[in-house]
Design brief:
Alpha-Beta Plaits; alpha/beta; Dihydrodipicolinate Reductase, domain 2; 26% strand; 440 residues; Rossmann fold; homodimer; 6-stranded parallel β-sheet; 35% helix; 3 domains; elongated
Chain lengths: 440, 440
């Protein structure tokens, strides 16, 4: 056995308390797996009196001092947010400490700075818990698929929005009502903005795209739409087409006609076929679907949040970092060797579902189809139905027209929809949503 | 950049050819990820003239000589089977070479010997491709969940049997007919014994149990039943209960009343609820459901076999081993520190579904229930239906009795079924199958 590995923890909230519990309960197991005792030597918190669960002699308010203590080998950060986590972790890395963090916002915004500090110091920076909680995902992406070529990562990576969309799909209720219910059940925060507007999913998309494509992608590079505009009509339209609506984080390697590669990272609600493995991921669960050249389709499923699942991922990273220190080395570095450009959303190929309330008269379909043709958007399927009882027009007969397109640049699709909305023959644009998960 | 990493490959069949292709296509990527060029220096095959795809100067028939060459750092073994893979890999490990293998039979039978040789020499032994093909599973089990406590691993790990059971479920056809169809479509081997009798799944269960519970489990320790006895009646009975039949590899940490832990590793067809994440895994796909104390439920899904998916896993391991050599170290060792005893199948708690054709007269249910009580087996649910048109008895009226039990020692359940079969009131035991995937 080597000398003990000293661990400092910054923060002690829901995840921190579970880390504490596992460090205690699993101490023998951890020692056996690491090849050395793993010893918690300090916990930095703002208000020590609020932490009776931590032995008093371990508590400190001075995180910067704790990091620099000689007996600290690894720093676990579970504070969250950008400040003061950022300067603390930079200091820890510069001091040669191994770092384990669950901080997705920090990694998505300041990842390149942190990776560079870790590289310069030869220190480990592990963050499995930052994406999809307990699901072992980053390690497989970065290590198991290291000899393969990942082409696409499609994830349900936010539990709150998945809970809301699953509930809307089951009940047929609208967004506002379902959000209220989710809040009451504790599935949505008092301020749900980060979740429902897609910021949380965009952070995770940035991290996933960086790892999958060896390119520095930050949250600012990720195109983002939330679920606040998803209506009961959208959910119903999806159902009628054998699809369901999910908030997806999509990271894609895009190759243009000239063979130039770029990376598309985007978050938006989309219709996916009910037969797709992601369609059955319900409630607050997360899942990530990965496509690679040789491996084919893979899916990783599990709990994306919660104290215990996140702590499990933190401990897995702690074991890896501690093992590396016992061996006197460090793990695989983050890599940005591909350094691909980010594709603007307007250029990204997507497919749309458009449901229109139109006048029920000859020539309307031709007129609508012409708008698609003018924008060089190819139509995959059209379904036209007569009078829709729910939408009896004030004057004249109405019909419903559902169009699903082939892939086209997103900007062309958006212009098409804008143009359609202005047609006299179109009474209402009932639902517009992107379609994912099948070859178009 | 360090000096190049030299790779020797033993065997060049379906998987080997894909490894060859990836090594060539991905050479720049591999070098970037490893931090050194990865160079194939030799391929050992039995009949060099049958391998026009391999550059002639790399081919050799002398595998033992190739392994010992000075320019070989890593040995990839894709021969399969026990001999001559076993002595070759032992020689490679003893010579300090890193070893990457896809050989599940060898690992399941001779794992302890190989792990010990790797330990003694300080050499890497990686085998992600041996279980569930391309699905990154072993690395997450061994590394990501290293700080958690795995309680159960339930896998669909054999594509042939899953294809057959999925087809029987869709078509209602019998086993023999469906096996024939699977053979015709190339989903079953000419001699399907290893698959349909559960030997292949048992090998994988041994490897999974070893990793999950830090205990040496070999294929001889795994209880095994195949799918040859699964009838159309079993599939129908499952369907009527909202269940489906899957061949499961189950590895479980069992704690008895006195708190003593042991490991149960077993393979058999079982009914699982259609709502279980494993139920939707259809055709030749594989999936493994993992339960851990802190992480909760996780599932890993993907292609379990095939040249390209398996090669993807081999390459991921190759990158890890090559990186370790560039860093001058080696990866986490196999660990048997828990060294738990193996629980005999008779003592293992399981639950049964039993469907009986009984005489339709008063008192039969009481008589049947008494048999369960005599064996201390608790009944969870009973469903009794009147005359079943498909089974009109030759004389007297018949009824169908379906019983699902709570968990009880498997031996008690088997004795119960034997006793039931001998009752005068029981005309026929229509279906007996274990039930998994729910709390009983």
């Amino acid at each position: 056995m080597s000398r003990p590995i000293g661990v400092a923890m910054l923060g002690c909230g829901t995840v921190g308390r579970e880390v504490l519990r596992l460090l205690t309960d699993q101490s023998e197991e951890l020692a056996a797996r690491v090849g050395a005792a793993v010893r918690l030597v300090g916990v930095a918190v703002r208000r020590p009196r609020r932490h009776p669960e931590v032995p008093a002699e371990l508590l400190t308010t001075d995180a910067a001092e704790l990091i620099n203590r000689d007996d600290v080998d690894v720093v676990i950060e579970v504070i969250g947010g950008i400040e003061p986590a950022r300067p603390l972790l930079l200091a820890a890395l510069r001091a040669g400490r191994g770092v384990v963090t669950a901080n997705k916002a920090l990694l998505a915004e300041c990842g390149p700075e942190l990776y560079a500090a870790a590289d310069a110091a030869g220190a480990d920076l592990y963050f499995e818990a930052a994406v999809a909680g307990a699901i072992p995902l980053l390690r497989p992406l970065r290590e198991s698929l290291a000899g393969d070529r990942i082409t696409r990562v499609t994830g349900i990576v936010n539990g709150t929005t998945n809970f809301i969309l699953s509930a809307m799909d089951s009940s047929g209720a609208g967004y506002a009502e379902t959000l209220e219910e989710a809040s009451a059940l504790g599935y949505a925060e008092a301020d749900p903005t980060a979740d429902v507007d897609g910021y949380d999913a965009a952070s995770k998309a940035a991290i996933l795209a960086s790892l999958a494509f060896h390119t520095r992608v930050t949250s600012a590079d990720v195109y983002r739409e939330g679920i606040a505009e998803v209506s009961a009509a959208d959910i119903l339209a999806a159902r009628q087409l054998g699809r369901t609506v999910k908030l997806l984080a999509i990271c894609e390697r895009v190759v243009d006609a000239s063979g130039t590669e770029s990376v598309s990272a985007r978050v938006y609600p989309a219709m996916i076929p009910r037969s797709h493995p992601l369609a059955t991921v319900a409630g607050a669960y997360n899942a990530v679907f990965v496509e690679a050249d040789a491996a084919g389709a893979l899916m990783f499923y599990g709990q994306g949040a919660g104290g215990a699942p996140t702590a499990s991922a933190v401990l897995g990273d702690l074991v890896a970092v501690a093992r590396n220190r016992v061996a006197g080395g460090y793990g695989p570095r983050e890599s940005a060797h591909a350094d691909l450009p980010i594709q603007p959303m307007g250029d990204t190929p997507t497919a749309y579902h458009v449901s229109l309330e139109v006048l029920d008269r000859p020539g309307v379909l031709a007129q609508v189809a012409q708008v698609f043709a003018d924008h060089e958007v190819s139509i995959m399927a059209v379904r036209q139905t007569g009078r829709t009882p729910d939408h009896v027009p004030a004057c004249g007969a109405g019909a419903n027209l559902v169009i699903v397109t082939h892939c086209a640049p997103d900007a062309a699709l958006r212009s098409t929809v804008d143009k359609l909305a202005g047609l006299d023959a179109v009474r209402d644009v009932v639902s517009v949503m992107r379609v994912e998960g099948e070859v178009t």
